[in-house]
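Operator note (shift B, R.M.): manual run for Lipid kinase, YegS/Rv2252/BmrU family requested after the automated queue skipped it. Running by hand, logging everything below so the morning shift can see what happened. Input copied straight from the record, untouched. If output looks odd, do not overwrite the archive copy; leave it for review.
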Amino acid sequence: MARRLLAIANPAAGGDDDETRKTVLSTLGEGADVVAAVVAGPEDLDRILDEHPGRDPVVLGGDGTLHRVVAALLARDEPARTVGLIPMGTGNDLARTLGIPLDPREAALVVLRGTERPLDVLVDDRGGIVINAVHVGVGALASEQAVPLKPALRRAAYAVGALLAGVRAKGWRLRVRVDGRLVADGRLLMVGVGNGASIGGGTPLAPGARPDDGVADVVISHAVSAWARLGYAVLLRLGRHRERHDVVTLKGRSIVVEGEPVPANADGELEPAAPYRSWTLRPAAWRVIAPDQQTGRQPDQQTVRGGG
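Run finished. Output pasted below as returned.
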């Protein structure tokens, strides 16, 4: 039985265009029963999911669209609806972690031929979720700096924003607890919590993070002097920031950050400054279609499980 799919497109996604969308839908249609829908706003999502029960959603968009779809499924208590992903946004960071091709047609083939993989999610103190990563401090400031640069620089916008923010930020007085243990207390440049490995379109915040291992990767930067901030920004982009003496990395299931109001970026979405935030990891909370974990290849299409 062919898998029944609901292709959800977000026209606002950075890589979305009519021609690419047609190619993706045509490819999906070669091996599945596909219905297409366009999400113009948040209010559309529940209606679309209601109209097509039993179909597995396939997100044609970026991390933000994927976040909204997964959040809707969890709020509706429908974790059994497996999610496919065609990375057509600006960052596409969870796709990078999962090994999903950034080429939309190749990603569509993964949806047809890939395997189901349970993934963890972070739940915050307000009931929101994080599927890829959240970071407070200079990373969020970098995202603010990147916003006006995106039209011209696209995926390079975050790298430039990170360099600018690394020079300008002075740090925040914060306390960080991981699994109840105080691990940092002082002026910090950044605290990152990674379910996935990268942020901002490939910046490797937590290179060893796996979104299915039952723990989150925590990165804490004490680099608050001018030269230290610049050095951290450069090494972060290279994935070598963990080599610095003023960077602490650890793993945990419960993370609390409190102190001075500090801005945050969760799955690419900016959040206003707040004095308290917490996240608790919920293992195997949702499912995604991804390449085979061992080989990186898609198994023969005959092995694909039919949709519900």
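Quick read of the result: Residues 294-308 have pLDDT under 50 and may be disordered. The two ends are 10 Å apart (CA to CA).
Leaving this for review. - R.M.
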